[in-house]
């Protein structure tokens, strides 16, 4: 890239490892590879790369009313609306909604200190998950100080809700969250969802926040959301897969690396927490029980369930197929080999913006079967690289598993190649670079 075209890019995220935070780390690397000047500012720094900057909140004494601070204070005066009801720091919430972003009114960072840590005034800002770090009021303050173009990236729904990260069918994000919020249990606290949503909407309008989807599901949700439905083009970056690391190049030998048998059919599934109702493992159990009834014993003997998790749900004890637990893998090189060793990846999530494992499995040439949500919506195509089942339809999930199990060798190879191609075309770093090139003009 011509150095004259280089932009100053700031990535904001609470952390730099695992899940949503790892996704923003990938965004930073893609931007750096494109030739831009990049800083990733986080509350919790784990990785040792120099471009990752840890934000440290200054003591009140250390804050001097410099020029930038005056600009920010002036902007805050303009920002002030009718004095809102105080937002409580603790809320009684239904855990399944992940109502973590509880306060859009407070100011959590000192803008001048953040920009000092970053080392430049950004042209563009990309925001991932910032729980316990900063909110949209902080983003508006940063915008007023920098006039940078701000893009929120959907690792879940939080960028366009009143606080929840998963809606479970609630359409508050479409009409505007209000006092009927199902995520908040106590009636006198439900108003907080409305307060947060109204402030989030106002901040987005004032700073012209834009949204980038991270999956087919969050693309559809963002297009319907009150905050972003007027946005002309919403790009979808689909999980961001490093195909240099996750690919099918060792698929022919991967089983041997894990001492797996060539004459067995290995079904891989898993999550960090299998007790999470969002992951829908009860429906996978039902699907496996259906297969248990339908398949003759000699075919059942060929199936082995590989379960990757920090803790395995006790429900798995009733599964009659051979099972093998694998501790949660953090090394991507080893994880890539495991995906390649598996014959099928099953994702039973019923409320999920991803998960990343779907695109990772596809990248490694492993067909995917799962419910029609999250990244499966546009990354898994029936009779091409896997099968999708309607939400919570265990019978259809079982049918999809059975179809992959019954593929002959040539047909399976076609599915495997199609899986890789889908990721290369719609989820690779190269694909994301094309999108970011359009944005960073």
From TrEMBL:
Recorded hits in Pfam families, A to Z, give: Glycos_transf_1
Query: Domain named Glycosyl transferase family: which ranges?
Result: 277-419
Task: Please name the GO terms that the record assigns under molecular function.
Answer: glycosyltransferase activity
Q: What is this protein called?
A: Glycosyl transferase family 1 domain-containing protein
The organism is Chryseobacterium pennipullorum
